[in-house]
Amino acid sequence: MDTTKAWRVGMTLAYAIFMWRSAVHTISKDIQKAAHALPNLLTPADGSFAIWGIVYTWMLVFLVKEWIRPSDSLPRIQVLYGFFLVSSIGSTLWMEMFVAGYTSWSFVPIFVSWLALFGAYLYVEDNIEPILITSILASSNAGHVFPSTSRVDFWCIRVPFTIYWAWVCAASTIALNILIENWGIHEMAIYIFWCGMWVLANSIILIGTGDVPFACVALWTLLGIASKNRADKWIYVSSDVVRYGEHYALEVMATVGAFVFGGLFCFLVVHEWWRGPSISLANSLPVPTTYGATSSSDAC
C-alpha cells in the first residue's frame, strides 16, 4: 500500500468513527443537554447546530471523491489527508469528553481540531482557485497561480473544508468561553469582545479571500446567537434583571454584527458586479512595437 492510500484509509476510518459517535450523541441528545446545563451566552440556538448535517455530508463528498477520483493536480495531498485525520480524532475526543462531564478539558481536543482544520483551510485556500462573486479589496496574492482551477476540486475539497473550519471556529470559541466560565470568570466584556472579534475576523477573511462559504457560516452563527439570546432573555424578564440585560446585550451585539457583516457582503457583491471583470496590470501596460513606438495591449 502506497503512502497516499494509507493516509486515505486512515482519514476514512477516523471520519467513520467520528460520524458514528456523532450519530449516537445526536440520537441521545446528550450533547444538547450538556450544553444547556452550561452558562454560555455565545451558544447559538439549537436549530443552528443543524449545520453539522451539511458539514458531515460535504466532508463525505470529499472522501468519496478522493477514493473514486483522487486529486492529481494538488501538491502533497497527504498533508490535507493528515489534517483531516487529526481533526476527526480531535472532534471525536471533544464529544466524548464533553458529554462525560470533562467540559473544561474538552477544550483541548476541540482546539487541536481547530488547528488542524486551520492548516487544512490554508492548504485549500492556497491551492484551489475559488469562485468569486465579491470584490477582493485587500489581498497580497492577486497574481497567485493556483495549482488547481478545477471546479470539482472547488466544490468537493475547498468548500467542505472551508465550511468545516468556519463552524469549528465558532465551536472552539464557545468551548473556550465554557472553560472561562468554569474558572468562575463571568464578564460581559469577554462576550462583547468575542462578538466584535468574530465580525472583524470574518470581515477580514471575506475582504481578503472572497470565501462565500465562510461568510455564510459566519452569518449563520451570528443569527443563531442573536436568536438564542432573544429567546432566553424573556426567561429572566421579571426574575433577574442582570441576566435579562446580559442576554439583551448579546442579542443586540449579534444582530448588529450580522447586519454589518451582511451589509459588507452585499456591498462586495454589488461592487464586483458594478466593476466588472478585472484587467491585470500586465495587460494594460504599453507594449513596444518594431520601430520603438508603443501601443496599448488593448488596442485594435
TrEMBL record:
Domain of life: Eukaryota
Species the sequence originates in: Aphanomyces euteiches
The protein's name: Uncharacterized protein
Keywords assigned by UniProt, alphabetized: Membrane, Transmembrane, Transmembrane helix
Transmembrane spans: 49-68, 80-99, 105-124, 131-149, 161-180, 192-223, 248-270
